[in-house]
Amino acid sequence: MPGTTSASPTEVSHARAMQLLERYGVLTREAALGEGIVGGFAGVYPVLKALEERGTVRRGYFVAGLGAAQFAVPGAVDRLRSVREPRRSDALGGADGRGGRDPDDVVVLAATDPAQPYGAALGWPACDGRPSRAAGALVVLVDGEAAVYLERGGRSLLTFPAALADDRWASALA
Asked: Residue 14 domain-assigned?
């Protein structure tokens, strides 16, 4: 077609790396594998290394347990530093000022949502079933920890250790 150009393999790899960085904030090998990209993490690693050398991204060990090769945009690193200590509303007197917990610390996400790290960047917590990043499935996070996994159509409900420690997840599914 006249007037169209195809992107070079380097441009494609650069665009893919930037997309993953914007999606995850902190890009790890596991997150790249979870995306199912051609070439896996090795396919974007040279671009990430070049971006680090240019100062566009940072390489470091930003999140414990996510593996050694972690790349992040500077804004993501700053946000991580600002929330280094887990925020527990009950420890802060609660949202109501009477020691209650903040219901806003409970989030329901699609299992496939990039903001939902379990099964991609993080392994699933221990449970009796086999959760997966399947379409139609939901994950309830309580204070950032996976509490329950609801299979598509509500066929099964798997509970994780966080569900035993905090029952706020139940109202999120009501």
From this structure: yes
Q: Tokens in use for 146?
A: 């996976």
| Domain enclosing residue 139, as ranges | 103-173
Q: Where are the beta strands (DSSP E) in 45-117?
A: 58-60, 70-72, 106-110
- The DSSP result for 1-20, as a single string, is -TT--PPPHHHHHHHHHHHH
Any domain includes 90: no
Encode pLDDT of 49-107 as tens digits: 999 999 999 999 888 777 778 999 888 888 777 766 555 444 444 444 434 455 568 89
pTM of this structure: 0.59
Distance between CA atoms of residues 58 and 122, nearest Å: 20
Residue with tokens 């309580």: 142
Task: Give the number of domains in the chain.
Answer: 2
Which residues, 6+ apart, have CB-to-CB distance to 120 below 8 Å? 30, 31, 33, 34, 35, 114, 133
Within 10 angstroms of residue 35's Cβ, the number of other Cβ atoms is: 18
User: How wide is the angle at C-alpha 17 spanned by C-alphas 74 and 14, nearest 5°?
Assistant: 110
109 three-state secondary structure: strand
Q: What is the radius of gyration, based on Cα positions, of the chain?
A: 19
